[in-house]
Amino acid sequence: MKTIHGIQYLRAAAALAVVFFHAAEKTGHHFTIGAAGVDVFFVISGFIMWVISDRRPVTPLEFIRDRARRVVPVYWLATAVMVAGALAGLFPNLVLSLEHVLASLFFVPARSPSSGEVWPVLVQGWTLNFEMLFYLVFAGSLVLPRNWRLPAMSGLFLALVIAGRVATFDGALMLTYTRPIILEFVAGMIIAEFWLKGRVPPLAVGSALMACSLGGFALIGLLALPFDELITGPLAVLLVLGVLSLEANGCVRRVPLPALLGDASYSIYLWHTFAISVVAKVALEIDLGAPATMFVAVLSGTLIGVAAYMMLERPLMRRGNARRVAGGLAGRAAE
Question: Are 176 and 127 in contact (CB under 8 A)?
Answer without folding.
Answer: no
